[in-house]
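Entry:
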Amino acid sequence: MRMFNPEWEAIRGMENASSVKDLVFDLQGFEIPADHGMALYRAIIEAVPELADLPMAIHPVHGAPSGRNDNLVINRRVKLMLRLPAEQAELAGKLSGCEIDPGAGPIRIGDLKVRGLTPYATLYSHLVVYDSRDEGCLLDEARAELEQMGVSAGLICGKRHKITLPEGVFEGNSLMLHDIKLDQSILIQERGLGNYRQFGCGVFIPHKSIKEVAID
């Protein structure tokens, strides 16, 4: 019999209370461009046009560099992840079975699993982008946005990255937030930071350690 743990039960309650979920799809294919945010969004919308009307965030696809070009390799562990309101899961589920091409050959979208958001005291985003292209302004803008949300957190800026957007090529940074209250952790994951959530920017996921980004 499982022992009652008040802290664990509180965390489970936060997960269940959030109306936003991560939809995780299997992928079958060979490669995807490393700079795939805009192309992936357009391919998804072409497959299921109704998704264009939703407040949808798309996680960056994390594959290993191919070593031959600027593409990432898709293996069995690489997933497509969308973050959107739970009531839209059925609509997004239409992606299962679709074939898309974000620029490096066809990719087949497989089975879907729905996951709740997990409250962690440390969160990480691969790329945060604001209107300003000045790296020095990013932390100030992120702090100001967190303050508007009523969130207190430590910030660690990581590697500089480029992304092709409709307005041109933008630069941003990876960003880690730490020492976050658990209820605020869910809020950050629901809302994200910065711009272009549909292109994979400012989407935060739980992270177990700050060491990797601290030396990034």
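The first strand starts at residue 20 and ends at 28.
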